[in-house]
Write a structure and sequence with these properties.
Number of domains: 2
Structural class: alpha+beta
Mean pLDDT: 85
Radius of gyration: 18 Å
CATH topology of the largest domain: Jelly Rolls
CATH architecture of the largest domain: Sandwich
Strand order of the largest sheet: 1-2-3-9-4-7
Distance between the termini: 28 Å
Length: 198
Amino acid sequence: MQTEPNILAAPSDTAQVGETLRLRRQMRGLSLRQVAEPAGISVGMLSQVERGLAAPSIRTLRAICAAMDMPVNWLFHRDGGQEDQAAEYIVPRGARRSLTYHDGALVKELLTPDTQPKIQMLRFLLQPGASSGEPYSDAEGGKCGLVLSGTLGLELNGTEFAVREGDSFAFPATTLVRFWAIGDTPCEVIWVVAPATV
C-alpha cells in the first residue's frame, strides 16, 4: 500500500475535487473499497479525499480516477462562482466532458452533470466505420436515443437495425446492444441512459 505524499492543489480546490470524486463513485455504484483497492490506497484515505480533508498526489489522483474509468481532467473544468452553483443542473457547451475511443473514431460527450445519477444524456459522434465493439448490456434501467445525422447501425439481442436521421429508439438496458456508423458519412446521436453508467 503506497503512502500519500505531496499536495495536489491549494486547499480551496480539495473540496471540489473530493466532491467530484464522490459523485463519480456513487454514480458508478462503487463502494469505497471497490475504488480504494485498485487505486492502491486505504479506504480511510479515499474517504478523506472525498470529504476534502486530504489532497492526494497527482499519481494517487490518477490511480483513483483510473479505478472509476474517469479521465483526470474531469476534476478541473470549472472556475468557481456562479458557474459552480449552476453546475448542479447545467452543462455549458464549452464545459462538456468527453471520452474518445479508437483514435478519435468514436467520441462520447457527457451532456448531463454527475449530480444527476438517475439519468444521463450523451452525444455520440461516430466516424464512418466506427463501432462500439462487442455487444454489452447493463443490469437495470433503459436506454433511448435520437439520430441527429447519418445512419446508425443498432444491434439489439442479435437483430440488426438501421436507424436513420430523425429516427429515435428505445430499449431495456438489459438488452445486448452494439452500434456503429453506417455509410461514408459521420453519424451523430443523442443517447440517454437511466440510470447513469458512464
